[in-house]
């Protein structure tokens, strides 16, 4: 059964966040809130966590996983960014955007798109997600909590606990979450491509 953590949305309890981070370091798969919608998260190098996310969401090996980062300095360790892209991303973060970029050697191979060698990165504008990533001290490997054959993500922590009780290890709930996934911007091909329009304003990249 999944553990359920009720976290204050503006002043998340340090002890609770520390407990969740410790569980992630020990291999736990958690459902947690972001500034777009709930996400599934596990430790960066967890092959088991990746396999479990793929199973829950029915994903193939072309799916772009996302590294949820605390800040721009952390993000820059895992992706290659030129000056123009740096300025564009810097102006849009933190926020509800995922950016697809060429990965550095810091990124575990199993996370990379098999042909492009790219990975998704983002910096959420969400107090609880930020607290969790800060406590971890490294990015949280994540994927939108959108179940197969469903058009919208679940928005309630109790519902996630009820439905995914035996496939996730913990649910972090800080109140209602949005239903729109992030806007996805691909910078990896030279030209800017809007892959998915979501919670972030895509017009700034058009």
What are the defining features of this structure?
DHBP_synth_RibB-like_a/b_dom, Threonylcarbamoyl-AMP synthase
Explain what the structure shows.
The protein has 206 residues and is α/β, with parallel strands linked by helices. It has a single domain, classed as DHBP synthase. 26% of the residues lie in helices and 20% in strands. It is built from six helices and ten strands, in the order βαββαβααββαβαβββ. It has helices at residues 14-25, 47-57, 72-75, 83-92, 127-136, 157-163; strands at residues 3-6, 30-32, 39-42, 66-68, 97-102, 118-122, 140-144, 170-173, 183-186, 193-196. The protein has a ten-stranded mixed β-sheet with strand order 1-8-2-3-7-4-6-5-9-10, with helices on both faces.
Task: Summarize this entry quickly.
This protein has helices at 14-25, 47-57, 72-75, 83-92, 127-136, 157-163; strands at 3-6, 30-32, 39-42, 66-68, 97-102, 118-122, 140-144, 170-173, 183-186, 193-196. It is α/β, with parallel strands linked by helices and 206 residues long.
């Amino acid at each position: 059964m999944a553990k359920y953590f009720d976290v204050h949305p503006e002043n998340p309890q340090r002890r609770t966040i520390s407990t969740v981070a410790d569980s992630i370091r020990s291999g736990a798969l958690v459902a947690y809130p972001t500034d777009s919608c709930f996400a599934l998260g596990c430790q960066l190098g967890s092959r088991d966590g990746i396999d479990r996310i793929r199973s829950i969401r029915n994903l193939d090996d072309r799916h772009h996983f996302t590294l949820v980062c605390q800040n721009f300095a952390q993000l820059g360790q895992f992706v290659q960014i030129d000056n123009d892209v740096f300025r564009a991303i810097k102006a849009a973060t933190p926020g509800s955007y995922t950016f697809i970029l060429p990965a550095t050697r810091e990124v575990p191979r199993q996370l990379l798109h098999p042909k492009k060698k790219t990975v998704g990165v983002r910096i959420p504008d969400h107090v609880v997600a930020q607290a969790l990533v800060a406590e971890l001290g490294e990015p949280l490997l994540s994927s939108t909590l959108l179940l197969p054959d469903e058009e919208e993500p679940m928005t309630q922590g109790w519902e996630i606990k009820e439905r995914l009780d035996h496939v996730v290890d913990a649910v972090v709930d800080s109140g209602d979450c949005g239903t729109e996934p992030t806007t996805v911007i691909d910078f990896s091909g030279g030209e800017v491509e809007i892959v998915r329009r979501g919670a972030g304003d895509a017009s700034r990249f058009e």
